[in-house]
Amino acid sequence: MTGTPFHLAVALDGAGWHPGAWRAAGARPGELFSAGYWTDLVTEAERGLLDFVTLEDTLAPQSEPFHRPDDRTDRVRGTVDAVLLAARLAPVTRRIGLVPTANVTHTEPFHVGIGIATLDHASEGRAGWRPQIASRASDAALFGRRTTPQLTDDDIRDPEAIARRLRPLFAEAADAVEVARRLWDSWEDDAEIRDAATGRFIDRDKLHHIDFEGPHFRVRGPSIVPRTPQGQPVVASLAHASTPYEFAATASDVVFVTPRDRAGVARILAEVDEAVAVTGRDLAARPLKRFADLVVVLGDTAAAAAERAARLDDLAGAPLASDAALFTGTAAGLADLLEDWRAEGLDGFRLRPAALPHDLSAVTGTLVPELQRRGFFRTEYTSTTLRGHLGLARPASRYAVPAAG
Q1: pTM > 0.90
Q2: H or E element at residue 113
Q3: How is residue 228 annotated by DSSP?
């Protein structure tokens, strides 16, 4: 490579991130809940040598406003469990990272933690996890065990107002990630002996109780899943304001941010740096990779891309509204933007294809070759794990006794 490489991922959601995508030419709405559909998408992403894919998930049917349900029938509704889907995709892929979303507000960290650990075994070290809080009070009714704050229409106009209302849920989420990380460490790397001749399968001294006690969870451990290929799967989070930036600084290995322009990149990264300072994180010991999210509508020409975007808006009955910036144009134009924004200190980008499979194929078939031509993206995988792709070291178990020197 002639330049310093950066990382590239795609976020996969239903028929694409534009609500009109399921009605577009080339869409496959009849297959959205089939294994074959998702296999095709993720193997295409792997052909493009992308670092990882993220898989969206929800606790209830999707809605147009993110803070409350709606009764619309002209949008994609329903999904499949993202962790189980990732496990299905693991054996049909070889190198690409698999990062499912899993809720932490209404689920137990023990169960989520062992699910992600199992995914890391199934994928031979390519698992990640995007912990997500349940920001809709209506979701709590599905479980009947607790209530959560109800965001108002006024709240959602201001990311900081949202963050203030949801701060207790982010604190709980940080504890959930900490429980999972301790469980991932609770088996030392060589705890399994598997010696049939002596009848010893494990070394009991190398399994550890985690004895976590906090305001939200009391978890003794150890995990039921042995230490995984990555030691700890990669944790990623989406952040729009100070509280989720602090959550990322505390709990995550990768943070997805949503700037609107280059100036926004600089401002947001400064806020992430401030959150890192507030939490006391040592970035030398625990790097935090910063990715910018972009929704992309790609075409062979700028005019063709604009026409596609207008057609998607017509199908949806309204222009796209998104927390992330929308790029409409050619692969070369997108490469220019990525190169420009990256100069502010980003490590990579998570692209949200507006319509699937079209915009994913455009990313792998036109954007990636353009980035390779410029010397900014890999021409082959040189590692076998997600941590390896991202340049993150494999952590040692916190419970392991260092070998005597």
Answers
A1: yes
A2: helix 109-122
A3: P
pLDDT in tens, 216-236: 999 999 999 999 999 999 999
Res 312 pLDDT > 80: yes
pLDDT above 70 covers a percentage of the chain that reads: 99
Residue 61 has pLDDT above 80, yes or no: yes
